[in-house]
Design goal:
It is built from 2 helices and no strands. By secondary structure, it is mainly α. The longest helix has 19 residues. It is globular and about 35 Å long. Bound molecules: zinc ion. Zinc ion binds next to helix 1 and helix 2.
Length: about 70
Amino acid sequence: MTVRQECGQERGQEEDLSRPPVPVSGCPTCTELAIRRDDARAWCDRSAETDADVLLRRHLRAEHYFT
Ligand SMILES: [Zn+2]
């Protein structure tokens, strides 16, 4: 396995206005969406990553009442 890319993203800037939603530990839906997002990120699939972010954010709002 030599497929290891950085997606051209620089680390170190944690304070992003478009911060990704944080999954709630112990919630199967959050876990599934977080895994999907990590998967997409690993493949540098930005659209799938954004997709998972949107779904996770929507789920958080509906199920966990996060802002
Ligand atoms: Zn959840």
